[in-house]
Write a structure and sequence with these properties.
Layout (H helix, E strand, L loop, with lengths): L9 H6 L22 H11 L16 H12 L2 E3 L8 H4 L10 H23 L9 H25 L8 E4 L11 E3 H18 L13 H15 L2 H12 L7 H4 L19 E5 L12 H5 L13 E3 L1 H6 L11 E5 L33 H4 L4 E4 L19 E7 L21 E5 L1 H13 L3 H12 L14 H15 L6 H7 L3 E3 L11 E3 L11 H6 L4
Helix pairs in contact: 2-5, 2-6, 3-17, 5-6, 6-7, 6-8, 7-8, 8-9, 9-14, 14-15, 14-16
Length: 546
């Protein structure tokens, strides 16, 4: 079944800024206010996290934070690009872009994160500068601005350095409103500024009650600080912050983790109201996101690239590493789409139910049974490993079907209607941070700081809602325990942009499974140049001090 995307108002979308939701509406656009208040500027920063084109390109992979989450998932190899029909992300999957400083895959995140940092510097300067301690609402604005600056530099350090090395030169560091080019700063300087900003942000945001989860509050700042300490190897500090966070939020429940085909409920990861979500964005029609969005690139139930053939699946080796009694294994399936056309003059135009041997299933009158009567949404979920050519035990349940989407997270991420290609205007929400991250980060950093007993207790408590029997953890220690925590982190946060961060701080060696289109079966060290982005040509040309 050939599908062609219709762009509609796509060109207008590329040339205009998306609308904002009610909480962010101003009496006049920020750009037209003579002296916009600090919070108005900050709201503009939060919108940048979801807007298209914020990386300075018109690419359909330029849509804010979630776009770079997807890039990092592909680089970590836990995510597989299943098709290259339209070409988006093919140069990430084949590892050619990261070492080519002329490629926009390097330019877009560089521009996006520095744009965030510059805007945060402007807010801070307007509130009195780096050492000022404002009062009232300005205090909370200062806390948010410093956290946003730290957020930008944290991700720049993850993507544009191969790993933590305090003495190594890294990226330019700007902490004032000036934009004159600066030389590369030592990693210790950049990380020092990130820690300073986030430590001050945690204090400044004490007592802050945010209007919505799209804004940074004290706990989000603590989460960013925990990640920073973990990247630096300051494990005891990361563990302490992580434990503080998990005491304040519930876990994502088993029911919220995976779609249940029997009850037609659960999973989705599409609603900011989920209690475990700490930071995200409540997308509405006013945001005007469609093809160019994370949902468009990730979700087969959204009208965009994943649906038309360039889907993203789980690495087979990672899938096989998920225990059969782990509920999260059910997040992944191969989706078989079939033709629901009914043409009385051409019965073969429709799809019919099949027996395992490929013969038609007949009703009591000896007539073929239309697939649409059993699967009204036009698809059926099969096992992840679905290859009739090599395994005769596998078979298509419908005639006229095709294996359209291989090993995708159809039961983890999906637009609520669950109609293939159905979500045209994206209203499914974005998640940037959820409390579950800090259960795994606490376990990791506790183990690394010598508290293996507590690490196993935290890990077992978290996994109890996912795995039927966690007693196997009792026998783990040392490197075996750390490997298990790393594995569980990769499983839990598949598709959420966290595996790459874990790969870097754990100095992991990754191996691409057999279903990768490029480099299948090959291994890469975490610090391989092909897994780290290159400072873009534009910066090299325009910054004489670099």
């Amino acid at each position: 079944m050939k599908k062609i995307l219709i762009a509609g108002s796509l060109f207008g979308l590329l040339l205009t800024t998306t609308s904002c939701r009610d909480e962010f509406l101003q009496s006049a656009p920020t750009e037209t206010l003579a002296d916009p208040p600090a919070q108005a500027k900050l709201n503009g920063l939060y919108l940048m996290m979801v807007n298209t084109g914020t990386g300075g390109t018109t690419g359909h992979d330029d849509y804010g934070q979630k776009g770079y989450d997807l890039v990092s998932d592909l680089l970590s190899a836990d995510m597989v690009l299943n098709g290259v029909t339209y070409g988006w992300y093919s140069n990430i999957a084949n590892l050619s872009a990261p070492t080519d400083f002329t490629n926009n895959a390097n330019y877009a995140p560089w521009r996006y994160y520095y744009r965030i940092a510059y805007a945060a510097n402007d807010v801070i300067a307007g509130l009195g500068g780096n050492e000022a301690v404002p009062t009232g609402n300005d205090k909370f604005s200062m806390g948010q601005a410093k956290a946003m600056r730290a957020y930008a530099y944290f991700y720049l350090m993850q993507y544009f350095t191969t790993g933590y090395d305090p003495e190594a030169l890294s990226i330019p560091l700007y902490t004032d409103a000036g934009v004159n080019g600066k030389p590369k700063a030592k990693q210790s300087e950049v990380y020092g500024q990130i820690v300073k900003d986030l430590t001050e942000s945690v204090d400044l945001l004490s007592g802050f009650s945010r209007a919505n989860k799209g804004m940074i509050n004290r706990e989000v700042a603590q989460g960013l600080l925990a990640y920073t300490y973990a990247a630096m190897g300051e494990n005891a500090k990361a563990a302490d912050l992580s434990l503080q966070i998990i005491s304040k939020f519930p876990k994502t429940s088993k029911e919220e983790t995976v779609f249940n085909e029997t009850t037609s409920s659960g999973g989705g990861f599409n609603d900011l109201k989920t209690n475990s979500w700490m930071w995200g964005f409540d997308l509405t029609e006013a945001n005007d996101l469609d093809l160019i969005s994370w949902w468009g690139q990730q979700d087969v139930f959204t009208y965009s690239y994943s649906w038309v053939g360039d889907s993203k699946g789980i690495d087979y080796d990672l899938y096989d590493a998920i225990s059969d009694n782990d509920a999260r294994k059910g997040q992944f399936a191969t989706v078989v789409e079939f033709d629901t056309t009914v043409d009385p003059e051409n019965p073969n135009a429709a799809s019919y139910l099949l027996n395992p041997d490929g013969s038609f299933i007949l009703d009591s009158d000896g007539k073929k049974i239309l697939s649409v009567t059993k699967y009204p949404k036009g698809y059926v979920l099969e096992r992840v490993h679905f290859d009739p050519s090599t395994n005769p035990g596998d078979y298509m349940k419908v005639s006229g079907g095709s294996i359209s989407y291989e090993a995708v997270a159809a039961n983890k991420f999906y637009a609520p209607e669950r109609k293939l290609g159905g979500q045209r205007i994206v209203t499914s929400d974005y998640v940037f941070m959820r409390a579950d991250e800090f259960h795994l980060l606490a376990a990791e950093t506790l183990a690394k700081s010598g508290n293996e007993g507590q690490a196993k207790t935290v890990l077992a408590s978290f996994l109890a809602d996912r795995i039927a029997d966690t007693s196997y953890l009792n026998a783990l220690s040392g490197n075996a325990l750390l490997k298990e925590i790393y594995l569980q982190t990769r499983i839990e946060f598949w598709g959420e942009g966290k595996s790459y961060l874990s790969m870097k701080r754990n100095k992991a060696t990754i191996k691409r499974g057999p279903n990768h289109l490029f480099f299948a079966g090959q291994s890469f060290l975490y610090n391989d140049d092909r897994l780290t982005l290159e400072i873009p040509q534009q910066e090299v040309n325009n910054n004489p001090n670099l």
